[in-house]
Amino acid sequence: MPSTLADWLAHCERLHPTTIEMGLDRVRAVAQRLNGGQGLRLPCPLITVGGTNGKGSTCAMLEAIYQQAGYRTGVYTSPHLVHFEERCRVLGAPVAPADLVPAFAEVEQARRGGDGQPEVSLTYFEFTTLAIVLTLARAGLDVVILEVGLGGRLDAVNVFDPDCAVITSVDLDHMEYLGPDRESIGYEKAGIMRTGRPVVVSDPVPPQTVLDRALEVGADLWRLGRDFHFAGDKQQWGWTGRNRRYSGLAYPALRGANQLVNAAGVLAALEALHPRLPVTAQAVRTGLALVELPGRFQIVPGQPTLVLDVAHNPHSVAALAENLDAMGFYPTTHAVFGAMADKDLRPMFERVNPLIDRWYFTDLPLGRAATAMDLAAIWQGTNTRSDTASSRHGSPVEALAAAVSAADPADRIVVFGSFFTVGGVLQDGVPRLAAKHLQA
């Protein structure tokens, strides 16, 4: 068997003929073989977070608040930005790569079967999900938070029954797997609900399929605008739920107007689980003030201003555009952009084009990514301005280097799109260029 995490990940990539195969039968079969045939279960309260955008931010805020309340937290999110082990956090920090290796070996042994059990082929995501959850199950935790990877109903995370589910925004993404419209996608997201257990829906206008599913399964629906509310001004905000109220809250440390919607859903989940996991008002205030999550409207100190955001679908790009607009005036805004070929690119460009003066399109190191040439062609078809320019580059760090070279200190550089775009800049571009170009 492989002996390092890198070798295990390479092994997982070779196992299954396709990158994505929806369905729970295979991953459930392997999960039931773990722990000596007793099955893989989490011995503490579990929160599952699904939705189109805002999942990572929601997980990070839940984690930060529960930690401030004194609980031992475990979090699984995906994808990662730079290192795989970012997907598994224990007590707020990524686990050491070596600490994941024993769980990978156990999943492999269970997958292979034997004694009359057939071998099961798992996708990379399914295999790694089981290994990470097995690691979290044995870490002596008080609460575990799992982010859904794709959809919900047929996602590997859904083999575990949550004590509380959270559904953030529902919008158009991964339509080839989830369906052509919000109603279809909402049905898939709603698959994480459980009978008699709370489900927090923080989408202000959820698809009817989400509401119908909650009624059908008998879930305890917490709906924004009915079961919990929030309001704020420029200095502070407040939240009201079924039995609790917070006033005079500072805005979350995660930047962007959209984070207030995410935070409202987080407070609803905290209230729903309060009988099992009591949380003080001070833990809420401190957790929201200290929460961190790279790549979500992250502003890197220095000149020119550098903004990193993993916005990669029309809904998240619209939020990014609003946040950029609220930053104030910059003489020139440069954009480093790389994305997957299956994304709905035209409305993304149309929304952000008025704010971007110079584009730097980048190739990405995987087959399903759009090439820089393809991105430039699609952008050109949406561009109505005569004062913009574009260039093509072989990697995110090369694109960032070109943008930094062309930018004046008073300008702004926005790196957005795929996790691979932002991750490539975080891994190589920012450290290498910080000392030379991004002087505070």
Question: How would you describe this protein?
Answer:
The protein is an alpha/beta fold. It has two domains: 5-290, Mur-like, catalytic domain (UDP-N-acetylmuramoyl-L-alanine:D-glutamate ligase); 298-434, Alpha-Beta Complex (Protein-Tyrosine Phosphatase, Chain A), CATH 3.90.190.20. It has 15 helices and 17 strands. The chain has an eight-stranded mixed β-sheet with strand order 4-3-2-5-1-6-7-8, sandwiched between helices. Helix 12 links the parallel strand 14 and strand 15. Helix 3 packs across helix 9. The longest helix is centred in the N-terminal third of the chain and has 16 residues, at 97-112. It is globular, with a radius of gyration of 22 Å. The termini are far apart.
List the helices and strands and how they pair.
Blueprint (H helix, E strand, L loop, with lengths): L4 H11 L9 H9 L12 E5 L4 H14 L4 E4 L11 E3 L2 E2 L2 H16 L11 H14 L5 E5 L16 E4 L7 H4 L3 H8 L8 E4 L6 H10 L2 E4 L5 E4 L4 E4 L4 E5 L8 H15 L8 H10 L7 E3 L4 E5 L4 H12 L7 E6 L6 H8 L5 E5 L9 H11 L6 E5 L2 H11 L5 E6 L1 H16 L6
Parallel strand pairs: 1-5, 1-6, 2-5, 6-7, 7-8, 13-17, 14-15, 14-17, 15-16
Antiparallel strand pairs: 2-3, 3-4, 9-10, 10-11, 12-13
Helix pairs in contact: 1-5, 3-9, 3-10, 4-5, 7-8, 11-12, 12-13, 14-15
